[in-house]
Amino acid sequence: FQQGRYDEARRSYIRVLLAEENNAMAQLSYGWAQFALQRFDVAPMALRRALVAEPQFIDAPPDPRGLYGGAAAFERHYAALRDYVAKKPADTEATFLLAYLQYATGDPAAAVQQLDRLLAVDGVDTLAYVLRDAAAARVATPGASQNVPEL
Fold first, then answer.
1. For 41-50, how does the pLDDT look when each residue is reduced to its tens digit (9 = 90+)?
2. In which residue ranges of the chain is pLDDT below 50?
3. Dihedrals phi, psi of 60, to nearest 5 degrees
4. Can you give the pLDDT at residue 140?
5. Which three-class secondary structure string do you get for the chain?
């Protein structure tokens, strides 16, 4: 992943998941590989599976920037997702992905805004409600330790 070989990384995560389907870190990393490949339809599904398998990722989201070899590649992918969501605001799954990314990279207020927008469209998305509450709690207590696991 750090060398920018995202498809190769994706395949590696698939091999891990075939052996350990409930491996939440592999599910999350698979989702970040899909994000890097701009597969904004698949990445949120992997992310959701990871959050269900490891609820700690909701309260202490791992920062995906640690997967990257440098900030420029991450920023390109992040910009691509923001552009995609701006062009397709009805895509609630991509919005969920963007919100989690904002939360995981230290902008819980932006995550709350995205999740509020998502929930206005899809009011039955329980995981979005849970994530919104966690991000809102982080906004209410800035500087709270995240105890974020390394990626």
1. 999 999 999 9
2. 145, 147-149
3. -135, 80
4. 87
5. CCCCCHHHHHHHHHHHHHHCCCCHHHHHHHHHHHHHCCCCCCHHHHHHHHHHHCCHHHHCCCCHHHHCCCHHHHHHHHHHHHHHHHHCCCCHHHHHHHHHHHHHCCCHHHHHHHHHHHHHHCCCCHHHHHHHHHHHHHHHCCCCCCCCCCC
